[in-house]
Amino acid sequence: MLATALTIAVGVIAPAFAIGKIGSESTNAIGRNPEAAPKIQTAMILAIAFAEALAIYTLVIALIIKFT
Known about the structure:
Blueprint: H1 2-32, H2 37-67
């Protein structure tokens, strides 16, 4: 049970920081160059999806640890 909790806790920290950093930097970029907002927003959504996938992989690993 402890291994499952530690896996989730450690595995979600990096994607959470990554999503925050992506959002912050894309907001700054759009603020500096509003004409490029559609391109920046598309890249931002894609990057957030990849970062979120890391958290989902962590959840899968934690479930494997829990049920084996």
